[in-house]
Amino acid sequence: MTLASSYAGKSLESALLTNEIEETQKEIIFRMGEIGESRSKETGNHVKRVAEYSYILALGLGMSQEEAELLKMASPMHDIGKVAIPDAVLNKPGKLTDEEFKLMQNHTLIGYNLLKNSTRHILKTAAVVAHEHHEKWNGRGYPRGIQGEEIHIYGRITAIADVFDALGSERVYKKAWELDRILQLFQEERGQHFDPDVVDAFFKQLPAILKVREEYSDVALS
C-alpha cells in the first residue's frame, strides 16, 4: 500500500466515523424529544411534524438549507422540560388552576437549563427553542415576556409549528380543532401571538405543511 492510498483510506474512515457520530447525535436528540412528548401522552409524530413544519417555514423565510436543517434537528427538543413536570399536571383532563399553569410554564426554563451549557451547535439551538417557543410577538408570552424581534427567530418559527400541530391534534384536555378554525385563529393572532412574517410564510407554505400533516398523521389517541 502506498503512503497516498493509506492516507486516503484513513481520510475515508475518518469521514465515515464523523458522519456516524453526527447521525447518532441527531437520533439521540430526536428520541429525547419523543420522551418529552410521551410524558404528556402525545405521540412521537408530534415532534416529527413540528420538525418538518419548522424546516418548511425556515426555508419559506429565506433561511439557508443548512440553517433550516439545524432548526429541524433542534426543534424536537422544544418540550424536553416536560420531563420534570408532574403527571397530574401534564395529563389533567380539565383546565389547569393558576398554580398548575405556573408549574407547567416552568418546562421552558427547565428545558433551557438542561441544554444551555452544551457546546454542540444543535443543542445550543435546541436550548433557544425550548426557552422561547411560548413567547408571544406582543410580549404576553412566557417565561420572560419578551416581544417582537427580541424573540429569536427559531422561537418564533417553532411557536407557530407547535401551536398548529397542538390545535389540530386531540389531547387529554381537548378535541382536535378543524383546519378552518385554526387558520382563522392564525389570521387573528398575526401580530399578536405570532410574528406577522412567519404567519405569512405559513400561509404561503400551507400546501407543503398539510402534506406533512397527512404523511405523519396519528393513530387515534387512547
TrEMBL record:
A Pfam family reported for this protein in Swiss-Prot or TrEMBL: HD_5
Start and end residues of each HD-GYP domain: 21-218
InterPro entries noted in UniProt: Cyclic_di-GMP/3'3'-cGAMP_PDE, HD/PDEase_dom, HD_GYP_dom
PROSITE patterns named in the record: HD_GYP (PS51832)
GO biological process: cyclic nucleotide catabolic process
Source species, domain of life: Bacteria
Stated name of the protein: HD domain-containing protein
